[in-house]
Amino acid sequence: MHFASDQNLTLPAIAAPMFLISGPEMVIAASKAGIIGAFPTPNARTSEILDDWMAQITTTLAAEPNAAPWAANLVVHRSNPRLAEDVACVVKYKPPLVITALGSPAEIIEQVHSYGGLVYADVNSVAFARKAAAAGVDGLVLVGAGAGGHTGQIAGFAFVEEVRKFWDGAIVLGGAISSGHAIRAAEVLGADLAYLGTSLIPCEESLAVQEYKQMVLDAGAEDIIPSNAITGVTANWLKQSLINAGHDPDNMGGPGKINFADPQNDRKAWKHVWAAGQGVGAVTQNAPIADIISRMGAEYDDAIKLPAFGRNAGDDNDQR
Q1: Coil, strand or helix at 201
Q2: Residue 158: which of 177, 175, 136 has the closest Cα?
């Protein structure tokens, strides 16, 4: 079970749910632009705020018959004390897609299926993909090497191929996908959808502060530092933000403590450092999300038209 072009998708992509970045305005704008809009429920600091956000999303998109579906992202790690409340809000507002992260999706599948929703599990290893598949999810989000935030260690080329050996359901591929050409490449690999994260951080609807947006626009792949010292889980961070927060990028130390309780507390280590993926060098626009998706759509169409052996195949001026 997965989302297809007949569900108002202009591009086979999801606006990845980004911690402290994705909010209701971003979800609505993404869905109206023709990709699946998503946000992590902990971005709403309280259950009451989450209820307001979901009411805003559902009411607004109900009046937009051409909007793409939307998704809620649940942090199912045992350190999240608000999970039950967030699940109750999900059942109330019935997002078509629920994406689980940082734990087993098993406990929420039946509740989401009860209203006809789909459950995709965010996984960063083949072992976790097997476990999620066995639990009964509808799709797998493969977080490959180079992804921003909590990242994976497996290249997308290898990840999709290996998972496809045992899984014929929906696959979303994430990891350094910052252009329409990369979205098409994910499809060619065998993925159904692409995860767009870093490329959307600078969009106008993003909750990121302007300094964060500018740092993304100024950065390249060499400015990305992987470390588990901040959250206890390996993630990719912008080097300059680590320096600004008093960290030594060359000596980040051992893993931090995994604790997703009250994630927006100002004392949390990640409040003062900013994540981004290795595809950051291709990010060029601080613009409305609709404009970014429009550009990617043109790139995607261009990629479909490319000859089998690359851009210069058949070009009389090609010198080989």
Answers
A1: coil
A2: 175
CA distance 200 to 35: 12
Whether the pTM exceeds 0.85: the reply is yes
Which residue in 71, 296, 89 sits closest to 172, CA to CA?
A: 71
Q: SS3 of 7, please?
A: helix
Q: CA 88, CA 232: separation in Å to the nearest integer? A: 28
Measured between alpha carbons, how far is 295 from 289 in angstroms, rounded to an integer? 10
CA 70/CA 184 separation, integer angstroms: 21
Chain segment 88-143, per-residue pLDDT in tens: 999 999 999 999 998 889 989 999 999 999 999 999 999 999 999 999 999 999 99
Please write the tens of the pLDDT for every residue from 36-78: 999 999 999 999 999 999 999 999 999 999 999 999 999 988 7
* Burial grade of 134 (CB within 10 A; 0-12, 13-18, 19 or more): exposed
DSSP secondary structure of 146-183 = T-SEE-BSS-HHHHHHHHTTT--SEEEEESS--SHHHH
Q: What are the residue boundaries of the structural domains of the chain, listed by start?
A: 5-207+283-305, 210-272
Q: Classify 5-207+283-305 by CATH class.
A: alpha beta
Contacts of 250 (CB under 8 A, 6+ apart): none
Tell me whether strands 118-123 and 193-196 are parallel, antiparallel or unpaired. Answer: unpaired
